[in-house]
Amino acid sequence: MSSLANGQRSLFDASIRYPLTPPLTRGCPETSTEEIAYPVEVDYDYGRVPRELFAQQPGDLDQWAPILPPLVAPGLGEGGTPLIQLEDGVFVKDESRNPTWSHKDRINRCTVSAAAAIGAPGVVVASSGNHGASAAAFAARAGLPCIVLATADTPPAVGSFVSAYGAHVLPVAKEERRPLMRRIVDELGFHPLSNLTETHTGHAYGPEGYKTIAYEIFSEIGVPSAVYVPTGYGELLFGVWKGFTELRLLGLTERAPRMFSCEPAAGAPLARAVAQGLPAVHLKAGPTDAYAIDCDFNGYRGVITVRDSGGAALSLTDDEMRAAQRELSRTGLWYELSSASSLAGLRQVGERDRTGPVVCIATSSGFKDTGVGARPLDPVDPTWDSVLRRLKAAGLR
Amino acid sequence: MSSLANGQRSLFDASIRYPLTPPLTRGCPETSTEEIAYPVEVDYDYGRVPRELFAQQPGDLDQWAPILPPLVAPGLGEGGTPLIQLEDGVFVKDESRNPTWSHKDRINRCTVSAAAAIGAPGVVVASSGNHGASAAAFAARAGLPCIVLATADTPPAVGSFVSAYGAHVLPVAKEERRPLMRRIVDELGFHPLSNLTETHTGHAYGPEGYKTIAYEIFSEIGVPSAVYVPTGYGELLFGVWKGFTELRLLGLTERAPRMFSCEPAAGAPLARAVAQGLPAVHLKAGPTDAYAIDCDFNGYRGVITVRDSGGAALSLTDDEMRAAQRELSRTGLWYELSSASSLAGLRQVGERDRTGPVVCIATSSGFKDTGVGARPLDPVDPTWDSVLRRLKAAGLR
């Protein structure tokens, strides 16, 4: 069945509607101001969505085609990731099991499809890592040229990753990325796969890919009590929330989870916006190793998710995230520090108000961390006595 | 349904049988000699295997429990990886989509289960990377101490990976690993998850995990004409072959694929053993960047797979593997060099004798390669003129 998408509508005022194409890549023209840009979202002909869609065992994104924007670009088997039980009632949604080993593959299937649908000559993305590599992979698969505006301090292993798919990788200073990106969009006609506005709006079709995470969770354990989400600009947070609200809209459930955004305490613009009752704020984030979710401003999507779901905007220190990262790796799951923010959030909240299972979303593998590969292995004297001493010193016997 | 495994039998002489436990970790005691060790395999009560097992959409290894050794250790959602279409009739089985991003997770679920089943105080593995990290992850999940005998030249990023799960990582010279491993097995009672013998026998339960790849391929596209497999000691090659022969044994198909082993030309002991009609050979491998499949000796499992399937033992140069790696990454799939040996093998053979779809198995992500992270990104002057010049120089407009 083909897509039932029938338009775009403003997130600030749902009565303001636009056609489905072209995708609005600078947010809602009517409601956005100098200070704040409001995103749009994709709307569907929900009355025609077949309920059987949700009775299947989850596969990749193609399975949800009726309730996604048109999937014009070919896929790489993105989505359909496992839900791993960590302890009684606590699950980890392992997004490192995607084609480029992060959640970003869900978004890029949809946004590269948008570029292909409008016949764009190429795509451009500003990214510190996962998003850029994923965009490059889907662009390569679709045969579209791709420009990645990376940052000069990209960890070397991530640099290899971003460069692997044949994209044009241009490392520049963080603040130079958006002006360059706008120019590439305006002068070369390339389709932007990441944000162009002062406060975050992102791509109109992006969260549509993320909402399939909610469908998958629902088909495995129903509606959880709460979902904890590593949060940068809040696209993943909003996307998962949108998925659950659609399930409610379709009459498949009456409940929805509380959504907890998990930001690095070093910045946490969403937490500040929520605390101050503002749609968006700018700030200057301090240092954190959770570089994948280290943001100086938030998006309105995050604000409405936390508000409408009755959740909370959490701030996590690097130490809290490191403890969660260690807890995960000691049970066989190795994620980058940013990914561990979700379990860190759960540990901060504890069992308070928990009425059922909870899900922590883990976005990406440990390979993306800044410290990876920085230290060679400590050599060891291979004599038996020495090995035995070392094992005993490590507490083995 | 619980496991229908009912014993171990010699691969050299199927009439020689042993009980299911303890797992024979030094091959078949009765047929092995000073020069050559013969492996054993797990046998099942095939008459009781429910045929409905193969009618389901593939999930993780637990789905195949009746036809696997007892899965005593908890899983991490291993298996159920996607089959990606590369071109008409050519598929890539993407094993980088496992819990530790390689095929090794299938083997370690089974072998760590063996250790848990016999109450071993810990596990030990000799590995250059993927196998060690995967063993460490499943041991951590099962709460078992794990010793990884790494090599001193492990790439730094892989060193971080292997160390992440809390194992005791001991980097030693390649030739020191087996003696130390035997000592750890003999004196500490740790269960070995990798080979202990002079020619390769590996763990009796290992290929059982790999055979689920055949079940998954079968449920998606039936029996392919040929399967190309990155080949080190031939466990994966044999495991996939065993899965297809079981499907035939169970009456689900009459056909079986031709199996092509894909070794680095720098060594290729299996190709030499096959050419000389020997069960196993020793040689001194030259330099290759395909370190994950760089072996000085082969296992008997590979010889019988190539022989019985009517396939061939291929040798691939690093240049051939690099061309295949590049071809894959330009369609959105980034694998380590060793993983690209399978597509390199297919490109070497061409369409000769192809009677249906073919499958290339890709074992692991590009993050594991030796060159990853070695070179920082080239900085770029962020002025528009300079960016435009650089893009034009790269052929963009």
UniProtKB/TrEMBL annotation, chains A, B:
MF (Gene Ontology): L-serine ammonia-lyase activity; threonine deaminase activity
Transmembrane segments: none
Gene Ontology process terms (BP): isoleucine biosynthetic process; L-serine catabolic process; L-threonine catabolic process
Protein origin, superkingdom: Bacteria
Keyword Magnesium: no
Residues annotated as domain Tryptophan synthase beta chain-like PALP: 76-363
Cofactors demanded by this protein: pyridoxal 5'-phosphate
SUPFAM superfamilies xref list: Tryptophan synthase beta subunit-like PLP-dependent enzymes
Mitochondrion keyword on record: no
Keywords in alphabetical order: Lyase, Pyridoxal phosphate
Name of protein: Pyridoxal-phosphate dependent enzyme
Organism: Actinomadura rudentiformis
Classification lineage: Bacteria, Bacillati, Actinomycetota, Actinomycetes, Streptosporangiales
